[in-house]
Design a protein that fits this description.
Blueprint lengths: L2 H11 L6 E6 L6 H14 L4 E5 L7 H6 L14 H12 L5 E7 L4 E9 L5 E6 L18 E5 L3 H14 L4 H22 L5 E3 L1
Parallel strand pairs: 1-5, 1-6, 2-5, 6-7
Antiparallel strand pairs: 3-4
Helix pairs in contact: 1-2, 5-6
Length: 204
């Protein structure tokens, strides 16, 4: 299902709602951010005020990860401020106005606080992240807040290539990019695939 079809479905379901929250989950490199941005563009064209909320804005800072010997596992479930993210989603669900949110700058490899503000006028919120549908730990609490769930699950070869390309684009050499993808990203991807609950919409 493409962004155009998804937008029509969301608009129909959100018609009588003050706020409608869409969760886009999937392994790293699946294309969650790309779909979220495409969906935002189409919804905006159709005069629906929407905003993207990225789970990656809640990455712990690299200095904290280094202190905890987790820098090589950045992106794993225990390298996020999970409680902070869940609290944010609760606030957004309760229709609190002018909620300040962080975003993740992938080029700088860090979270930027106060990057955007969600207003009461934002009818559709597009939340994207690896662990939005996890069945374990504190993450499992999130599922009750989603009005629609989407899971992107490309094949393993596609994931590998996208992850390699990502790290090459960010300046790693071929050896370092392969090590980062195989030793960290792919284990995280397998965890997402094994531990996530089913979504309403599956995109392959």
């Amino acid at each position: 299902m493409n962004a155009e079809a998804l937008s029509d479905n969301i608009i129909q379901r959100a018609e009588d709602r003050k706020r409608f929250i869409v969760a886009i989950a999937g392994p790293p490199g699946a294309g969650k951010s790309t779909l979220a941005e495409a969906l935002l563009e189409v919804l905006t064209e159709k005069s629906i005020q929407a905003r993207i909320i990225s789970m990656d804005g809640f990455h712990l800072d690299n200095s904290i990860l280094a202190e905890r010997n987790l820098i090589d596992r950045k992106g794993a479930p225990n390298t996020f401020d999970t409680a902070g993210f869940i609290h944010l989603i609760k606030r957004l669900t309760s229709l609190e106005d002018n909620v300040v949110i962080p975003m993740f700058d992938r080029n700088k490899d860090l979270s930027i606080a106060g990057s955007s503000i969600v207003s009461i006028s934002d009818k559709v919120l597009i939340v994207e992240g690896n662990y939005l549908l996890l069945k374990e730990g504190p993450w499992a609490e999130l599922k009750k807040y989603w009005d629609q769930t989407i899971f992107i699950n490309p094949d393993t070869d596609t994931l590998k290539q996208r992850l390699l390309d990502r790290w090459l684009k960010h300046g790693l050499n071929a050896k370092a990019a392969k090590l980062r993808a195989l030793s960290n990203d792919l284990p995280n991807a397998h965890y997402v695939l094994e531990k996530s609950s089913d979504a309403e919409i599956q995109i392959i």
